[in-house]
Design a protein that fits this description.
about 900 residues, alpha/beta, Heat Shock Protein 90, seven-stranded mixed beta sheet, 31 helices, 28 strands, about 15% strand, transmembrane helix, nucleotide-binding, ATP-binding, Sig_transdc_His_kin-like_C
Length: about 900
């Protein structure tokens, strides 16, 4: 017995390679067994066929010419089989060109009249003509004359189990111990004998013909398993299909339409090639994606076998050779061992798979290269064992590792109970901690939900409470702006008030926009914009504030900046206002500069449309306090202010955060550069598209009256705030509408039933009964369904708009609103049109014409008491009482209503006093 120190290394080596020693022989043995019973035979054939189809194309064999007989030729000849006279004529024409040999691959065992005698004469006079017979299976006799002359060969082909021809039969030995040659062998020998090359025997079974040594096929050669190897067979090394040989039709031969020297010293094969003849076979080239494989005529297969024999004998073209069976078995064992070793070397699966893949690709390429050099090496078993051994050995290693793991688990189980107890105590402690965390998270969630609800309620309430007075401020400034009697200075003051109100509204919208940003609901609303006008408007907004602080406000727009662009004008305006407001706010001396330029090559010529996107660059530079470096990173966060901003106690901390979101949504970026004590430069870019000036929306003209012949529409205004009702009444009556008012939903319903208005402007939040309830009640009646109800709301939240739709509102208008927007909304639903300021015949001119043409006869339609009340109201300048009296005028007197209304609005109490006094005196 060997001592233990010597045994241990050997035991370790055996243990390390145990998987390889078990796996490699086992997988190899299974593969050899499977190969021996023919499991891989079809795969090997398919691989061989693929090699034939994929190898480089070979040149045409100039030594062989095929005379084809197809359906067209039979149609020209008029009969099949071809009459003996026609065949004799064709053979005469062929013989005249002195070919080396002629192979007639058409059975002629029976005469086909007319012309049989002529054909026999041609047979006898053509010693290099070889006819065919069939000797395997159902025999077909040769032509008797050729048989007597010994000019006969067999035309039988060998078919594999899948019906394809991959082997060539060179000779057979018949029962009477007579050896017969195939057509291809006979013609090849005739050609080579003329070249001085004869057939010689080397070893038993091996034949040498010129440079080639032919070895007979055996049943297990290559991918074959127990194939029939009777006769002298060789593996066919195809040159190709019909296109690898010269072809002429028998019709051309009969008409003598062939080149004079085409056939001289060549082998001529005559055979049927048409699809309707029973002489078509499958070959390695036969494949079709549509399910019908293309077949090859037998005469072309004979031509390939002749070409193979001649090329091998004369040029040394490779014949297909195979390995002996023992070498194939050792080859399979070698690759089985390689696969098992790879699985042992690489513990990671991905390395094993990669190595197997690379080896498989290399092995497949090697088989193909070997085929190109004349060797057919069966590759399927070796590839399968390479993969199979790797997989099985990997599994073996996994099982071994599993056994090792089980052994370790058994070792751990000895102390497992104590560890489990310790772990249980720890888990219980963690469980208590998790439960406590869950309770705290639930509380935090409740707080977050409550905070979110409070935020929503706050936003809704803030929106309503701030927008409502803003509605009055902006609305009355618009009304005052309509007064032509105001001086230019007062008009300018009103414009400043209006722009300041709009700026205040934008601050309110900041909070709402930030809420939308947090919810991911921010949308880009692009439209046509006059950029120069926008910049001028923003400059007017800040001019007074800058002058009051002694700052120089400079707006520099480069010449190549397009005036008319397509972008979201509201968001661009808000960005500029936010940045300029901050610069002016935190700058005590010096200047604030806005510089605008373009980064693209868009033309500044506004007469041409530039469809190409442009990048506009805006720089807001100031000489203010500056921003500390540590504050820049958090500058664009919501509700975050710089130290200077906190000291000023101004702003919400939202402006820059919203500006950043707007800029990014508009396809740009925003950045900041700042030095404390020297100033700050904010730079942002946006993507815009240039537009024609004609595409831009022009400022809407001011509507001053209803168009002539417009019916008197009744309008009901419902709002709990007096100033809001007064604003709408003044505006609508000045246009020519008949207006009544209500302060809550309950009053609105009562007035609606008697007044029957065409349209109701309905506020939402009101005491006694809100707008939702009043709208539902009105819309629930048949009469109310035809009444247009439009909500007037100060809320901008989406869920409240959904409530409006459910309540039955036809539309909504957000406070504060512009008068043009309100009038356009009415025109949309009532299908009316207006007279606008600046038209050829303005409404003011029409009004003057109306009340200048007004006479006491026009007032006679009213009672004397009514005229007296009108006189008293005009005398005391009570325009409210005058409007109440106008409401009593019948609706048919439209001109009278409009004339008196215009006199009241223009404060022409003198005209009213004069007219009414004349009528009273009469």
């Amino acid at each position: 017995m060997l001592p233990n120190p010597i045994l241990r290394p050997l035991q370790r080596s055996i243990g390390q390679w145990r998987g390889v020693l078990i796996t490699a022989p086992s997988i190899a043995g299974l593969a050899i067994l499977a190969n021996s019973v023919g499991l891989f035979q079809m795969l090997e054939w398919a691989t061989l066929d693929l090699y034939f189809r994929q190898r480089p194309s070979e040149p045409i064999d100039e030594r062989i010419v095929i005379v084809r007989v197809d359906e067209y030729d039979i149609k020209q000849i008029g009969k099949w089989p071809i009459p003996d006279a026609v065949l004799a004529k064709a053979l005469d024409h062929l013989k005249a060109q002195q070919p080396q040999a002629i192979g007639l691959d058409i059975y002629r065992d029976l005469p086909v009249q007319p012309g049989h005698q002529k054909l026999e004469q041609v047979f006898k006079s053509t010693p290099n003509l070889i006819g065919v017979e069939k000797v395997v299976g159902n025999n077909v006799a040769p032509a008797p004359t050729l048989s007597k002359l010994g000019q006969v060969a067999f035309a039988d082909l060998v078919l594999d189990a899948d019906g394809k021809v991959r082997r060539g039969l060179m000779s057979v030995k018949l029962e009477e111990n007579q050896t017969k040659l195939s057509l291809s062998a006979r013609l090849s020998l005739m050609y080579l004998q003329a070249k001085g090359i004869t057939l010689q025997t080397k070893k038993p079974g091996e034949l040498q013909l010129g440079k080639a040594v032919f070895t007979p096929f055996r049943g297990n050669d290559g991918g074959y398993v127990r194939a029939n190897y009777g006769g002298y067979q060789v593996l066919l090394n195809y040159r190709g299909l019909e296109n690898k040989f010269h072809q002429i039709s028998i019709t051309d031969v009969l008409a003598n339409r062939i080149s004079p020297d085409l056939l001289r010293d060549r082998i001529v094969l005559i055979g049927a090639t048409g699809q309707s003849f029973n002489d078509l076979f499958l070959t390695p080239y036969s494949r079709s994606s549509l399910g019908t494989a293309k077949q090859t005529p037998g005469v072309v297969i004979h031509a390939n076998l002749i070409s193979q024999t001649l090329s091998a004998a004369l040029e040394g073209r490779a014949l297909i050779k195979v390995w002996p069976e023992p070498l194939e078995c050792w080859w399979i064992f070698f690759w089985s061992t390689c696969g098992a070793i790879l699985a042992s070397i690489f513990p990671l699966k991905r390395y094993t798979l990669g190595s197997i893949f690379l080896l498989g690709c290399g092995l497949s390429s090697g088989y193909y290269l070997a085929f190109l050099n004349g060797w057919w090496i069966p590759g399927v078993p070796s590839l399968l064992v390479l993969v199979g051994s790797a997989v099985v050995n990997t599994g073996y290693i996994l099982i071994e590792n599993l056994h090792i793991s089980h052994k370790k688990l058994e070792d751990y189980s000895r102390t497992l109970e104590e560890k489990v107890k310790e772990r249980t105590v720890e888990l219980e402690r963690k469980k208590d901690e998790l439960e406590q965390q869950a309770i705290e998270l639930a509380k935090a969630k409740e707080i977050a939900v409550a905070a979110n609800a409070a935020k929503s309620a706050f936003l809704a309430n803030m929106s309503h409470e701030l927008r409502t007075p803003l509605n009055a401020i902006l609305g009355f400034t618009q009304l005052m702006a309509r007064d032509a009697s105001l001086s230019k200075e007062n008009q300018e003051y009103i414009g400043i008030i209006n722009r300041s109100g709009e700026h205040l509204l934008s601050l309110i919208n900041d909070v709402l926009e930030m809420s939308k940003i947090e919810l991911g609901r921010l949308e880009l609303n692009e439209n046509n914009l006059d950029l120069y006008n926008l910049i001028d408007t923003v400059k007017e907004l800040f001019q007074l504030k800058a002058e009051s602080k002694g700052l120089e406000l400079i707006f520099d727009v480069e010449m190549d900046v397009p005036q008319y662009i397509i972008t979201d004008g509201k968001k661009l305006r808000q960005i500029l206002i936010n940045l300029l407001s901050n610069s002016i706010k935190f700058t005590e001396r010096g200047s604030v500069i806005l510089h605008v330029k373009t980064l693209s090559e868009s033309s500044p010529n506004n007469a041409k449309l530039n469809q190409k996107d442009s990048t506009l660059l805006f720089e807001v530079q100031d000489t203010g306090f500056g921003i500390a470096p540590e504050e820049i990173n958090s500058l664009f966060e919501a509700f975050v202010q710089t130290e200077t901003g906190r000291k000023s106690q101004q702003g919400t901390g939202l402006g820059l955060a919203i500006s950043k979101q707007f800029v990014e949504q508009m396809g740009g970026k925003i950045s900041v550069q700042s030095q404390v004590g020297k100033g700050t430069i904010f730079t942002f870019s946006i993507q815009v598209q240039a537009a024609l000036a004609t595409e831009n929306i022009k400022a809407e003209p001011t509507a001053i009256a209803l168009a002539p012949n417009t019916p008197k529409y009744r309008i009901l205004v419902v709002d709990d705030r007096y100033e809001n009702r007064l604003l709408l009444i003044k505006l609508l009556e000045s246009i020519g509408f008949f207006v009544r008012e209500a302060s809550n939903g309950e009053e609105a319903i009562a007035i609606w039933s008697d007044f029957e208005p065409h349209l109701i402007w309905m506020d939402i939040k009101m005491p006694v009964m809100d707008g939702y309830e009043a709208t539902k009640i009105i819309k629930a009646t048949p009469q109310g369904k035809s009444t247009i109800i439009i909500a007037l709301t100060a809320s901008a939240l989406k869920h409240e708009r959904e409530f409006m739709s459910e309540a039955g509102y036809d539309d909504f208008l957000l406070k504060p609103f512009s008068e043009n927007l309100l009038l356009n909304k009415m025109a949309e639903y009532l299908s009316i049109s207006y007279v606008y300021a600046g038209e050829e015949k303005t409404d003011s001119q029409a009004s003057k014409n109306l009340y200048s043409a007004l006479t006491i006869e026009d007032l006679c339609v009213m009672s004397s008491s009514w005229v007296q009340e009108l006189y008293d109201a005009a005398l005391t300048c009570d325009d409210g009482q005058i409007m109440e009296l106008i409401k009593e005028i019948p609706q048919s007197n439209t001109n009278l209503v409009r004339a008196l209304t215009d006199l009241a609005h223009d404060f022409r109490f003198d005209v009213l006093i004069d007219l009414s006094m004349k009528l009273i005196n009469e």
